[in-house]
């Protein structure tokens, strides 16, 4: 096959996509640097340091007895559990292979080649990827001075070609937070034919003072989708499960294009159990708040700038040079500490640190102090 023939395969905007790169797995770092896996600390992917709740493990074990059969394509039991917990109609729930699936399904359902999709600078990397995959035009709106979403500027960016807007709250990787009242005022200004996705993958980490009712907006506005995840607070990252809540005009579209068995049986069973495990969720929240305090106090002592975070991670500036993040990241890897460089988000001087267990946080702090000194 000639190069011309190779280049003719696939759409040009698909060939131009740079694939998403996640945090380095522990096994990869151990293999590349010759380290002992058991001594490596991973604080790179915003995973739950407590792992999976025991309630979910037991539910999975029971579900494993019937893995010779296909999963429930409609996810009836999980959708029913979500509908009852969230007090929304059953028909408003869409299950996804992680919340990423919901984001990508929405892009496929409402945006096409030449349409425009709006999101903020420094927002989740999947937004531009989902946009590019459907041939739409990415409209990246500059962030505010504190690295957050500029909602007023996002409104001004809307044109007749706009079909979709992504709003992350809290935002990854910056951890910045938007008040509920500000988001509602924003939604009211968006034309009804433009779909707004409120991405709440880190919603469970909000303090009581920050909490707001995003589902109230779904009830009021047929163009709003709320996306959430079981990967973070519920500890089910390896099972890949998330969900979206929207009125039936949107969920009908999502269910027409999603894969028929996009959420496996083990994930469905584990999610039902985790959803009801209030004790685990409370323990996760408490560990996260304590870990945030532990990390930020250390950053203060080291004189490092960090962004106030409403998620389970902290973005910290480790130097003033454009290569600072990459250099410190490499030294941390050599010390057996995996964090997340964010140069691909336009933040090359920063590192994103997932909040871990106290001893994991301390190992990172000690390594960082040694490297900086």
Strand-helix topology:
Layout: H1 3-7, H2 12-15, H3 26-33, E1 41-42, H4 54-63, H5 76-86, E2 93-96, H6 99-110, E3 116-120, H7 126-133, E4 137-141, H8 151-156, E5 162-168, H9 180-189, E6 195-199, H10 214-220, E7 224-229, E8 242-245, H11 248-257, H12 265-275, H13 278-302, E9 313-317, H14 324-334, E10 337-338, E11 340-341, E12 350-354, H15 358-372
Parallel strand pairs: 1-10, 3-4, 3-5, 5-6, 6-7
Antiparallel strand pairs: 2-8, 7-8, 9-12, 11-12
Helix pairs in contact: 4-12, 5-12, 6-7, 6-11, 13-15
Which CATH class of the largest domain is shown? Alpha Beta
Shape descriptor: globular
SS elements, strand count: 12
Report, as a whole number of angstroms, the end-to-end distance. Answer: 54 Å
Summarize the structure.
With 373 residues, the protein is of the alpha/beta class. It has 15 helices and twelve strands.
């Amino acid at each position: 096959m000639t190069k011309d023939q190779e280049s003719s395969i696939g759409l040009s905007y698909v060939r131009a996509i740079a694939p998403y790169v996640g945090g380095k797995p522990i096994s990869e770092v151990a293999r590349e640097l010759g380290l002992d896996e058991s001594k490596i600390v991973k604080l790179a992917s915003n995973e739950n340091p407590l792992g999976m709740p025991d309630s979910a493990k037991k539910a999975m074990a029971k579900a494993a007895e019937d893995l010779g059969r296909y999963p429930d394509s409609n996810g009836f039991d999980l959708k029913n559990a979500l509908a009852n917990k969230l007090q929304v109609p059953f028909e408003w729930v869409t299950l996804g292979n992680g919340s990423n699936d919901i984001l990508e399904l929405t892009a496929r359902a409402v945006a096409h080649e030449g349409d425009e999709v709006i999101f903020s600078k420094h927002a989740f990397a999947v937004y531009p990827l989902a946009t590019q995959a459907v041939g739409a035009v990415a409209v990246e709106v500059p962030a505010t001075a504190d690295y957050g979403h500029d909602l007023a500027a996002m409104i001004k960016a809307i044109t007749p070609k706009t079909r979709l807007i992504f709003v992350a709250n809290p935002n990854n990787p910056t951890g910045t937070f938007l008040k509920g009242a500000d988001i509602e005022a924003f939604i009211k200004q968006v034309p009804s034919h433009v779909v707004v996705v409120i991405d709440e993958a880190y919603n469970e980490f909000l303090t009581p003072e920050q909490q707001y009712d995003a589902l109230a907006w779904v009830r009021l506005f047929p163009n709003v989708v709320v996306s959430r995840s079981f990967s973070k607070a519920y500890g089910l990252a390896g099972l890949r499960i998330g969900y979206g809540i929207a009125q039936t005009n949107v969920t009908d579209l999502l269910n027409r294009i999603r894969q028929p068995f996009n959420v496996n049986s083990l994930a469905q069973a584990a999610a039902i159990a985790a959803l009801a495990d209030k004790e685990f969720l409370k323990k996760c929240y408490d560990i996260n708040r304590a870990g945030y305090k532990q990390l930020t106090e250390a950053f203060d002592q080291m004189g490092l700038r960090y962004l106030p975070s409403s998620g389970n991670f902290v973005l910290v500036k480790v130097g003033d040079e454009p290569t600072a993040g990459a250099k410190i990241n490499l030294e941390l890897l050599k010390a057996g500490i995996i964090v997340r460089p964010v140069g691909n988000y336009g933040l090359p001087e920063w590192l994103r640190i997932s909040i871990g267990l106290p001893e994991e946080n301390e190992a990172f702090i000690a390594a960082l102090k040694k490297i900086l000194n």
